[in-house]
Specification:
The chain is an alpha/beta fold. The protein is built from ten helices and ten strands. Strand 1 and strand 2 form a beta hairpin. Bound molecules: phosphoenolpyruvate and manganese (II) ion.
Amino acid sequence: MRIAGQVNVDDLPRICSLLSRKANPRYGDQETRVVEVRGIRFGNSRPVVIAGPCAVESHGQTLAVARAVKRAGADMLRGGAYKPRTSPHDFQGSGLEGLCILSIAREETGLPVVTEVMDPRLVAEVAEVADMLQVGSRNMQNYPLLAEVGRARKPILLKRGMAASLCEWLGAAEYIAKQGNLDIVLCERGIKAFPSGEYSRYVLDLNVIPAVQSETFLPVIVDPSHATGVAAMVEPASRAALEFGSDGLIIEVADFSMGEPTCDAAQAIDEETLKRIVSFARAHTERIEQEQHAA
Ligand code: PEP
Ligand code: MN
């Protein structure tokens, strides 16, 4: 039976001629194309740890979390100034003021900043501040947005749609690449599958990491926070992601001494937990490098 609109990995060299490993044999079977964000490199043996608040809520809250992220030894700061919320009546982010706060946090800590852009009309404005633009799960197939961020000449963090197949995800990345921007880092953030919502927010699909690595040369990282929705699961999920070959992590952190965050409080970890995750990531790098030397 022929079914319209069905694609599988065998079609990737055609639908993703710019990003498919098979269509671009210069990357060989294993090489990852390194994406650099202000000196931080995604796709070498050292995983990149990005951490920060879910949302930029205020100057005090963001700076407190940014300092904790810096003390914990993470590489980059995250934080949404524009938030995709299920209800239009909920806090939508602090917008322009939030971008300003992020740039102050970068100034103080030296950490490069990744932040989400949802509206194609705001790409230029967000790109003025962000070192890396995030396209969120809900917008993974917003093709005009993908084209616009592709033209922004900033590295892009492309989250996987929560119900997207590998081919749909890589097809979305190809829209960015088609504008001449290959500085794309993919991010697995959990998918909707039958038990999602029962004991965790989504289902963390770690199996997709080696699949991504075999189909494309782009780096891929994992978001254990949105994938699980449960703070206690973030540390083990981070370790598991690194064991599966993830090129990094993006993690939500809160400073609970300032009260509960407005968004996603149940998945936010504290500074001590982030410290342990960073130590695990650094030790993991050393282990991989030792194995490579021994081989
Ligand atoms: C986020 O990282 O702030 C976020 C909203 O994640 P996602 O798009 O994966 O739901
Ligand atoms: Mn969040």
